[in-house]
Amino acid sequence: MKHKILVPIDFGSQSVVALDYARFFALKIDAKLLLLNVLEESGILQKFLTPDLEEKMANQAKLALKGLAEEHLRGMDYEYCVRVGKPYEIIEAAAEDHKPIMIVMGKTEELSLKQKFLGSNTLNVIQETKYPVVSVRGKQAASDLTDYILLPMDLSRPVREQVNAAIEFARLLKARVFALSVDVKDDVAYETHLLTEMHKIKKAIEQAGVECETKIIEGRKSDVVEIISDHANKLKPMLTVIMVRDESKFDQWMMGSVARDIIRTLDYPVMSIRPWNPRVEQNPIIKLIVDPMNVL
Question: Do domains 4-136 and 145-290 have the same CATH topology?
Fold first, then answer.
């Protein structure tokens, strides 16, 4: 069975850019593309949405998806569907049904209500799903991307899952890894810790058969996102792999400020990975890549 890539489409310009990136990834891994449009379920819409009107709107959306696919996905393996509901809930449900190797979504910070809505749904999906989410903010052509995967790491915290994801997707996409960490402490012992950890990470990545470069940069905590963004602009990576962590006592999966700012500012695809508990859940990245048929 082929890998699958889920692509939510709202027909805005950024979701079309996301579709082109999804096509880029699908060609590299011979994946099937699943296009999903969600008719937003709101209080006003529910009040006036009769079954006949819902069917008419769904048919119109299907025709639009068909036209979009014919224009952008010629020769590709794809299917499309339309659902009614809250977009991030429908997207999460579709991910559970299809178990995609990634979800590719457009992300923008422009001020129209529709685009704010899209951005909000992208962040909601990132926080809720266990599947890797690739958020696309910029409009660079996918053909301009290099074979790098940028791996920015906070080495004061566990990074095993993040490194593992970078390794597995580097293997799948035939990419190389650029591991980056920012030294935000003026402390010799911490600098030694960073060097030791980075050496271990480089060794693990290379032992997995993936080419790896590493870099540690001194900087202030407030400069971390800017440093990562500068390196993304230089490398033009096909992916920047980040870990969405718990940084709140009250919300188990609340997105940390650095992760959120990376997603909002980088002009290149950002893959967000959720932590998992190895005691109760198998590594979902390896399972998606090695066992797409859910045999293991």
Answer: yes
What's the CATH architecture for 145-290?
Answer: 3-Layer(aba) Sandwich (3.40)
Residue numbers of the chain with a pLDDT score lower than 70 = 42-49, 108-119, 245-256, 277-282, 290-296
Q: pLDDT digits over 197-216, tens only?
A: 999 999 999 999 999 999 99
Residue extents of the structural domains in the chain: 4-136, 145-290
* Residue whose token pair is 């593309």: 33
Topology (CATH level 3) of domain 4-136: Rossmann fold (3.40.50)
Q: Order of strands, edge to edge, in the sheet holding 4-8?
A: 78-85, 32-40, 4-8, 102-106, 133-136, 270-273, 239-243, 148-153, 176-183, 212-218
Cα separations in angstroms, 73 against 11, 47, 123: 15, 36, 26
